[in-house]
Design goal:
Layout (H helix, E strand, L loop, with lengths): L24 H6 L3 H13 L2 H10 L2 H13 L5 H13 L3 H14 L4 H10 L6 H17 L7 H13 L4 H13 L6 H13 L3 H14 L4 H11 L4 H14 L4 H13 L3 H14 L4 H13 L3 H11 L7 H13 L3 H14 L4 H13 L3 H14 L4 H13 L3 E4 L3 E5 L1 H26 L7 E6 L2 H9 L9 E3 L3 E5 L11 H18 L5 H15 L9 H8 L19 H22 L1 H12 L4 H8 L3 H17 L24 H5 L4 H13 L3 H14 L9 H11 L3 H14 L4 H14 L2 H12 L6 H13 L3 H13 L5 H14 L4 H12 L4 H14 L17
Parallel strand pairs: 2-3, 3-5
Antiparallel strand pairs: 1-2, 4-5
Helix pairs in contact: 3-4, 3-5, 4-5, 5-6, 5-7, 6-7, 7-8, 8-9, 9-10, 10-11, 11-12, 11-13, 12-13, 13-14, 14-15, 15-16, 15-17, 16-17, 17-18, 17-19, 19-20, 19-21, 20-21, 21-22, 22-23, 24-26, 24-41, 26-27, 27-29, 28-32, 29-30, 30-31, 34-35, 35-36, 36-37, 37-38, 38-39, 38-40, 39-40, 40-41, ...
Amino acid sequence: MSRKPLPWVPSCVAEATSPRRRRTRAGRAWGGSVVGLALAGLLQAAESPREARTWLLSGRYVEAVAAASNHLEAGQADEEWSLILGEGLLTLGRYAEAGRVLTNALTHYPRSIRLRGLAREVLPYLGRAEAARGLTREIIELVAARPFAYRDPADLVTFGRAALDRGADPKQVLERVFSAAQRAEPPLREAGLAAGELALAKRDFALAARQFQQALQRFPNDPDAHWGLARAYAPDDPPRMLEAIAAALRHNSNHVGALLLLAEHHLDGENYAAAEAHLERVLRLNPWQPLAWAGRALIAHLQNLPAREQAARDMALRHWTNNPHVDHFIGRKLSGKYRFAEGAACQRRALTLDPDFLPARAQLALDLLRRGEDAEGWRLMREVEQRDPYDVTAHNFMTLRDTLERFATLTNAHFLLRLPPRDAALYGGRVLDLLARAHAALTARYGATLDQPTRVEMFDDQRDFAVRTFGMPENHGFLGVCFGPVITANSPAARPGRHFNWESMLWHEFAHVVTLHLTRNRMPRWLSEGISVFEERRAHPAWGERLTPAYRDMILGGELTPVANLSAAFLAPPTPRHLQFAYFQSSLVVEFIVHRFGPDTLTALLHTLADGTPINEALARHTLPLAEFETAFAAYARQQAEALAPDLDWEPPPWRASPLDPPALTTGAAVATNNFWTLTRRVADLMESREWTAAHALLEYLTRAFPEHTGPESAWRQLARVCRELGDPAGERAAWSALAERDDEAVDAYLRLCELAAADGDWPAVRLNAERYLAVDPLVPAPWRFLARAGEALPNAPTAAAAWRALLELEPANPAEAHFGLARALHQLGDPAARRHVLLALEQAPRHREALRLLRTLHAAARPVPPTAGAAPSSAAAP
């Protein structure tokens, strides 16, 4: 559908802010009669349309329908009563009755566009979608012919919605129609709602949130506005979404949209019982509600119940047989569970029912791009942008495509890597090497044979990563995401000053590739994340989430999430720590399975899930019934927590509850206790007062009692500093080494170890720690320079050459050094490019003596050898 300008510029827009002037037909009939006026007053006092509409908003649909029916049957052919009755019947699923009411009302009010607007919503459920489109044309034509008659703000909103359906420019509708209606006095709730719905339709969630917040300023108790706000928060702020849903249900406990959104949230968290309960509430109100039946079809699909799924889908399409929203919803939620092939099939079904349904086309494009089917995916996304230039996601993706076209592409037997050219030159080869090791280890461990190369895209801008991953530039804290055959990731350049180990991250994501492939994407989120974190720990002693004092407290404090609900722990965690704990707990469940039942059990579990078996049934088949499994795992988790530094007392001292004014601690008090918190406080006091010897004694005890302590407050880090202050380089190196073995992001430790090892001539240690540093940040010169020196000293010319090349990419302060180092390494490798780089070194430093000597050596090697006496010329013919 192409954009079209508004068919008219409503001259009455400026007047739309005046009070409503329309009068009902009944009022005109009674206007000159004293008896009529008295009767009208009695009717208004008994029950007015305003009161009945309040009932609709609060969820008293049956009462509102009864009141409207009574008034209309009493002979009040009133437009407002007809609208109330039609809306109530539509909400309750009484579509045929709603159609008759609106048809009758239009005979009394043939020029009403509000009645036509409501009828447009009803007619598709009566198999009359074409008639609904005809009503849209009628609304446009009526307003164009008599604009002065439709200056009421409610009419403006109806006209704006019809104009959008006819392809009018959304920005014009928002600015010239909805905004005018929003300025009305008294205020009209529908105006703010319409503006918010328009923003939601364009997936501009930030604008939608602002529109609904403005509506709530004028109508704080409006459940529809709270529901709109919840949908605006849904993509990236689940806790606030849940707050908004709760607010909507406080004002209308029967709000169909809020109940469906809450069911959707429970579906995302794999809590199907809770989702069913909310869907049942909806179906008690409207036995034919399409999205409620679509939700039931989705649950049946996820539980591998195809007959029940088909029956539910048939019910969803019972009245509106070509409703594209049904399959679009099912497919969107399947894609949210990384079942992109199934989701794409649903979107194709939706487009078969309605080829012009752009949401399905956009979702299909996303699904295909996430499966690596780029040609069709990009074509569909461009079609969406061309037909709706205001679709934010489509616009973001087409802008991103220009960025992707500038990326470099590196390949090996199993991977296609795309990343910015500078990143490719610096560490692209290291990425491919890491991925090759991951492929060899994980495919062998799980017996997986991947049927296509894995695509990995690394972005140096977080916003580009977020658009590629989520469709919007807001990043939700993710470093990488795996869709199956496609991995998207932040490069180290995307998070300046915020270190992370990109090797660990990519290993984690490739583990997802393997497990998603084995299960055909049919696995709960907790198991998928748990295996990936577990495989990180298997691959490297410093990788992955590990037991910390905070996690110990959460386990022993009763904060374990039941395994049956563990996927939900990722959706709306109360704090970032709770989210990280969900990853750790999931990995602990996987560790428990492997420890208790053996590694083959984990692989067998994955194969069972691939057959469509629900996770609880699969667990019971291969381990224990769920209730017994929960009990056994909880005991295992408590055992692990209690085993964390058992010689230390972990009870928080009273002063930790009010740390702003902690009491002074004496040396004797610190020595006499094994309380972790008291000891660490005492160490901090001693270091601040420069009592290095006393601090050293306490730190030696802490590192023996809790050697796994990592992070900024690690006792190893403090011990290294104390040893340096005491002039003990061996002790300092030992402390940094202990930390480096356990902490995969300790760049300060890696750099200092390079310095100390180089001073000791320990070049293998220099190389080890330089490479540790590069696994976190390959965009700084220091580790490359140390790696180059180590390559020269070991000697390892390929390592030296690669490091000097990377250093040149970083534009070092002394390029002559880097060019000369590269020339020397290339000469050892017999690469003729050595001559070019030695000349570049001399260009920067003409008196560089070593470069001059190397140049003479290269000239001598290139000089032809004179023939010996009696030898035949090289051009002589063979005998």
